[in-house]
Amino acid sequence: MRPRVEEVRIQGLGVIDEAVLELSPGFNVVTGETGAGKTMVVTGLGLLFGGRADPSRIRPGADRATVEGTLIIEAGGHVAQQVGDIGGEAEDGELIISRTVSAEGRSRAWLGGRTVPVGTLTYLADDLVAVHGQMDQQRLLQAARQRAALDKYAGNDLVKPLRAYTKAYKRHKQVGALLEELTTRARERAQEADLLRFGLEEIEKVDPKPGEDAELRGEEERLSHADALRSAATTAHTALLGDPMEAAGGPHDVISLLGEARAAVEAVRDFDTQLASVADRLAEAGYLISDVATDLAAYAESIEADPARLAAVQERRSVLTGLIRKYGEDSAGVLAWGQQAAARLGELEGDDERIEELNREYDELTAQLTELAAELTAVREAAAERFGQAVTEELTALAMPHARVVVQLGRSAEFGPEGVDEVELRMAAHPAAPPLPLNKGASGGELSRVMLAIEVVFAGADPVPTFVFDEVDAGVGGKAAVEIGRRLARLARTAQVIVVTHLPQVAAFADQHLVVEKASDGSVVRSGVVTLNHEGRVRELSRMLAGLEDSELGRAHAEELLGLAAADR
């Protein structure tokens, strides 16, 4: 079972207030008077499958446009698996897709009951639908679109060599850009190298050590205040032990006073354990004070004024401060800058060797690209011949028996993202005419048929379950219109086809005919989209043929068209 669109609900889009389209698996045609909103049906389907959201398309007075579609898919199939991978559900093979566009331009999408990015709908659409609006004919005239059409037709034969080419092409561009940078910025890089060398020489000459700036700062403080430090230590020592020049055990030094306190308590400690504890603490205090006094004496002896050392420290600090001002917040930062600068200088000084290596790689990549591009060309040439023949055969079936489509491959002087091939579709209107570019060799109606022929060829090479065409028959009439209707009906044997048309010759071949009716106020309400029975089809085709629903001549012609279509099935 192939996937198909079963139902589409549209609200607040263009002139459509609310409409419901119930679609058949085969050939569905949508008709209606000018301005009734037929094209909005295609616009809605486009939104449903990830098309660009245009807030100007929202119905005046509405705050949003909403499109909801019900799709029938194969349970457990590829599409169902894709939906399941994102957390959505397709219950009993029925998948619900919804899209809203606010008047402010915000867009939201739902897939299988789960909110998803709009890009997910676009990704899913690749396996479900091909939507073609009126602008697709003009896009078909673009060289890039024509190359893309040929590549799509080439299919798997092109996938592997194109993947290899794309990988080599990206690296080729990267290497080329590096070479250009290395060669065009040689002067700037040389100047940068000189600055780095100067900085590294400065640092090497000074040879700073980690934390040296902090150590020198402390040493300078000590040397600058040596007299005050020694005096303070001596005074404190005297307070603790007394002046050694006076009689030992003077009455006011701390050790003597502690000795007196301890002796007083020791005499009575045996009478109370609490006081004994105090005596022990007084003893500890005496030992501690003695140790402190010893340290103070040693410190006072070690402190000496050294003007020569002070000057050396200040000079060293001045040099280090100069480096820190240029290269870092402290001596460790200066050393870190030096490491980075050395690494960068190594890169700059290795430019010549690097340029040589890059040139060698660039030449190798150029040779590889040349070989891969030739492989792409060979695949495209084979596909071009088949493609041209297949489209020509389809044009014969579309009432252009003498037309011939060829695919001309040119060569670009430069490598491109997809190779060196320049693809151009050309058409010869009759055997004696030279093949001309489509915009010169095909009229508007012929271009419509060429596009349809290309889609039919694609349907055989890369099947799509649902095709949507918006007035693909523009500029066509008479016998050619009948042939387009017949060809669309044949396409509908293998795919679901939805066509918006103004031609009764095309509409007559439909399996299901929907008409968009225009209300008196210019809007289209829900009941405005009607699925026609046989009598309704006769009336609608008569209107399309003669402008009058009840014209006897028009009804007779409509019956004739329906009979022709039925006989062709």
UniProtKB/TrEMBL annotation:
CDD domains given in the database record: ABC_RecN
GO BP field: DNA recombination; DNA repair; SOS response
InterPro entries assigned to the protein according to its UniProt record, in alphabetical order: DNA_recomb/repair_RecN, P-loop_NTPase, RecF/RecN/SMC_N
GO cellular component terms listed in the entry, alphabetical order: bacterial nucleoid
Location of the RecF/RecN/SMC N-terminal domain: 6-521
Keywords from the UniProt entry: ATP-binding, Coiled coil, DNA damage, DNA repair, Nucleotide-binding
Molecular function via GO: ATP binding
Residues forming coiled coils: 348-382
Membrane-spanning parts: none
One of the Pfam families matching this protein, by short name: SMC_N
Role, per record: May be involved in recombinational repair of damaged DNA.
Similarity comment: Belongs to the RecN family.
NCBIfam families to which the protein is assigned, alphabetical: recN
Protein name: DNA repair protein RecN
Taxonomic source organism: Nonomuraea cypriaca
Gene: recN
